Amino acid sequence: MESVLITGANRGIGKALVEEFLRYGWQVFAATRDPGKANFPLPSKDSSSKFEIIQLDVTSDESVATAVETVRETTSQLDVLINNAGIFPEEGNERLAEMKLAWFREAFETNVIGVARMIQHFRPLLSAGSRIANISSALASISSKKHFGYYAYSASKSALNMFTRTVAAEFAPDKIVVAALSPGWVRTDMGGPGAPLSAKESAECLFRTITHLSMDQSGSFMGRNAEAIAL
């Protein structure tokens, strides 16, 4: 049975990804900062899936290290690691003069350093054929940036894309795929009610793309349907 760990799994795209992987019989580790607030439909008794909710805060070395040991109690290998946990600290329409510099620190701590922390700690559970999917955003595209706004969030996601390419280069000899994916504009707490995609629709596409990632796509920045996005 293939295994996947998903961060930020208690709501939105993360929760939808948990449900999608369970639907296809995967062993799922749903990682969330507050398991007490998680509300997942458990697999049916006749399901071949295994499911475990794990307490994990990507901004804490101790929390991530403890989560690694928790996963090790069940499996010695992760087939897929999805770094989905992220924050959007600003409203998005602020001018630079209105930006709180603390928002940049918060965005980078979770969206970049948090991902680095996850991969660093979970690296021993990854081997040839494993796939790492870093959930990015179309707002991370530098070449297509034509407007102001989304300062902290877009900068952190652009940094995540560079980090993804760098890790992909390091892990290439070990045949571990590392890619950044944009889920699209999704109706979540972050995306807002006006977004065109439901979390389920996005997760269905992401599932197909992530589970079919190959080495020739490692280091890529792509959309939920594996379409290339300009860096």
Account of the protein in words:
By secondary structure, the protein is an alpha/beta fold. It has one domain (3-223): Rossmann fold (3-Layer(aba) Sandwich). 35% of the residues lie in helices and 15% in strands. It contains 5 helices and 7 strands, in the order βαββαβαβαβαβ. The protein has a 7-stranded parallel beta sheet with strand order 3-2-1-4-5-6-7, sandwiched between helices. α1 crosses α5 (199-211). The longest helix has 22 residues, at 101-122. The chain is globular, with a radius of gyration of 17 Å.
List the helices and strands and how they pair.
Elements: E1 3-6, H1 12-23, E2 27-32, E3 50-55, H2 61-72, E4 80-83, H3 101-122, E5 131-135, H4 151-171, E6 177-182, H5 199-211, E7 221-223
Parallel strand pairs: 1-2, 1-4, 2-3, 4-5, 5-6, 6-7
Helix pairs in contact: 1-5, 2-3, 3-4
Give the helices and strands as they follow along the chain. EHEEHEHEHEHE
The number of domains is 1
CATH class assignment: Alpha Beta
Number of strands: 7
Strand line-up across the major sheet = 3-2-1-4-5-6-7
In quaternary terms, these chains amount to single chain
What are the main properties of this structure?
Rossmann fold; 5 helices; 231 residues; 7-stranded parallel β-sheet
